[in-house]
Amino acid sequence: MKIKISHVKFFLLLLLLFIFPWQTRLIYQTAYIGNNFWEYDSLSLYGTEILLGMTILLFLIDKLHGGFREQFIKYFNKKRLAKILIIFLGILSLYLLASTNHAIAWQYLNWVVYGICLIFIILESQLSFKKLSLYVWGGGLVQAILSIWQFFNQYIPANKWLGMAVQDPHQLGVAVVEFGSERWLRAYGAFGWPNSLGIYLAVIFVLGVILIRQEKDDKYKIWLLIGQTIVLFGLFFSLARGSWLAAVVGLFVLGFKKYKEKIFWQQIGVYIFTFLILLIIFKPLVFSRLDWNNRLEKMSLSQRISQWSEFQQVFAKNYLVGVGPGNYTIVLHGIYPKHSVGNLKPVHNIFLLFIAEWGILGVFLLLFLFYNGKILNLSFAPLSVLLVAGLFDHWSVSTFTGLIFFCLVIGLSTKYIAIDTKVSPE
């Protein structure tokens, strides 16, 4: 029985890592402003959320029979875990009671618990860093292929089973790049917005650089490198400036640590060559995206500036414990009741968003957890990508998929060093 559970739990974990970008969900409580659907006040159950719940349950059942790995116990002693758990659950209860909308806070806190469980599952799992990362990367490769098709098709059909909405560049509200009289659709992948896709693929791209370095078989290196160029295409067609910058920062982090390795610089040469070809072919789109005098870019910049003022007003509602997890846009709606759905968005900065929703107490809680749990390795390049991209977007802490992905990267950042070996995965 134990062997069967072990096989099933590992299968479910790897399946989750591969398919979790897909947004299939059941919206069981729908919110509207006027006749427009309001995402941030609606309650949903994701397909991957169910899969993650099943994985967590099987891991718990298996641990009740077999106990935790010796390496895991050495790294996370029982006293430390008990102290963190008691404080953590107590403070989460406080946040639930203090939140403006209890239902949204409850949903978000469930996501937080799921994410933390995923971190510990990754750390405790007997699956290697390399195998876990390969499945994550494989899922990203699928998203990149889908993104390339979307860009050249210039239309995304709806598919409720895959969680994809229709995206037509001729419709207002769709993410496009304007060039002259033309409107070019940016790639979405399976995500709700191109910036989300860009952040995800930027992390996948940098993770792929690490996988190629670890691979000893030259044939597999070539296949991985081919896959990496496809991922780079997908990242390019997201036309997400912040994600491009974050990917470059991730490469700099790797280069700073591995500047003597020939394989790393060989990869960089291939990537630069590929990007230059794309830049030459799609130069008008790139320069339009970087032109702050462009109508859409001016509008985007204006919205980002106004969000700073909005953040200040939301944060002022409760400095100590914030307005509640997931409650930012709900409080914002109370401050600006005449705002349309399109203007009721979380501030495009994960650090400001976290401070507004969790307050000063949340900042101290986060520092306490990571200091005592030792589950954060800031030198891990994919994590650096997420943090840099988080300066320009909110996806990695405002949505279920983004939050779980953040926790997944945190788990991978510590997995190799803490559990498997003392040698860095990079």
Report on this model:
The protein has 426 residues and is mainly alpha-helical. The protein has one domain (2-420). The protein has 17 helices and 6 strands. A hairpin with a 2-residue loop joins strand 5 (176-179) and strand 6 (182-185). Helix 1 packs antiparallel against helix 2 (47-66) and helix 2 crosses helix 5 (102-124). It is globular, with a radius of gyration of 21 Å.
Order of helices and strands: HEEEEHHHHHEEHHHHHHHHHHH
Widest sheet: strand order? 1-4
Tell me the fraction of residues in β-strands, as a range: under 5%
Task: Please tell me how large the radius of gyration is.
Answer: 21 Å
Number of helices: 17
Stretches with pLDDT under 50, minimum 5 residues: 419-426
Short description:
The protein has 426 residues and is mainly α. Helix content is 67%, strand content 5%.
List keywords for this structure.
single chain; mainly alpha; 6 strands; 67% helix; 5% strand
In terms of topology, how is this protein built?
Blueprint: H1 2-19, E1 25-29, E2 32-33, E3 36-37, E4 43-46, H2 47-66, H3 70-75, H4 78-98, H5 102-124, H6 129-153, E5 176-179, E6 182-185, H7 194-214, H8 218-238, H9 241-257, H10 262-281, H11 283-289, H12 295-315, H13 328-335, H14 350-373, H15 381-389, H16 395-398, H17 400-420
Antiparallel strand pairs: 1-4, 2-3, 5-6
Helix pairs in contact: 1-2, 1-6, 2-5, 4-5, 4-14, 5-17, 6-7, 6-8, 7-8, 7-9, 7-15, 8-10, 9-15, 12-14
